Amino acid sequence: AQKVTQAQTEISVVEKEDVTLDCVYETRDTTYYLFWYKQPPSGELVFLIRRNSFDEQNEISGRYSWNFQKSTSSFNFTITASQVVDSAVYFCALRSYNTDKLIFGTGTRLQVFP
Amino acid sequence: GAGVSQSPSNKVTEKGKDVELRCDPISGHTALYWYRQSLGQGLEFLIYFQGNSAPDKSGLPSDRFSAERTGGSVSTLTIQRTQQEDSAVYLCASSLGTGYQQREQYFGPGTRLTVT
Prior knowledge:
The structure holds two protein chains of two kinds.
Chain A: E1 3-5, E2 10-14, E3 19-21, E4 24-26, E5 32-39, E6 46-52, E7 59-61, E8 64-69, E9 74-79, E10 88-96, E11 103-104, E12 108-113
Parallel strand pairs in A: 2-12
Antiparallel strand pairs in A: 1-4, 3-9, 5-6, 5-10, 7-8, 8-9, 10-11, 10-12
Chain B: E1 5-7, E2 10-13, E3 19-24, E4 31-38, E5 42-50, E6 53-56, E7 65-69, E8 75-79, E9 88-95, E10 106-107, E11 111-115
Parallel strand pairs in B: 2-11
Antiparallel strand pairs in B: 1-3, 3-8, 4-5, 4-9, 5-6, 7-8, 9-10, 9-11
């Protein structure tokens, strides 16, 4: 069975702090894809990143970085120098190579206070 | 360019009535997906279309739920005889290709359905 676990329900930080959102996944497939989406208060899910299972290179995009470790089945997301605009619910998702549906975690609500 | 659009943005209906939710995917996207977001169940997959065909309907919760897509573009999700547990935000997404060729799924703003 496939499963995504985001153990952190809610995180609160003060602006400029770094914050890491955890994501642990379960799958028996050797080929799969991992995603992060952001859902701001407006409600629309915004795509952030896609990672293939055969590519374990970490990625950095501005203040965002992602750490993919197959050995621990984790795909963690770090925001450096957080800002109030980063406040949102963040979802990690998994898709197997032979299906088209996304399996979502329960999300982590991040609140960044000024 | 234009993103995924959904209508209506909000729908309040009485228990037992039928509702139709509409999704307009991004132009050129061949795959279209419906998800449901509710407090108790999180984000759940309902159904997806490749063109006008629905290879995976495994997430539809009951036979009261159906969906169709015409012309490889607009899709309609229909819920018959609505129940209070159908209250949720219904999200539509689209993507280029499926399977190995699938790219990211881009989501619309959702339709918030409230069944009274």
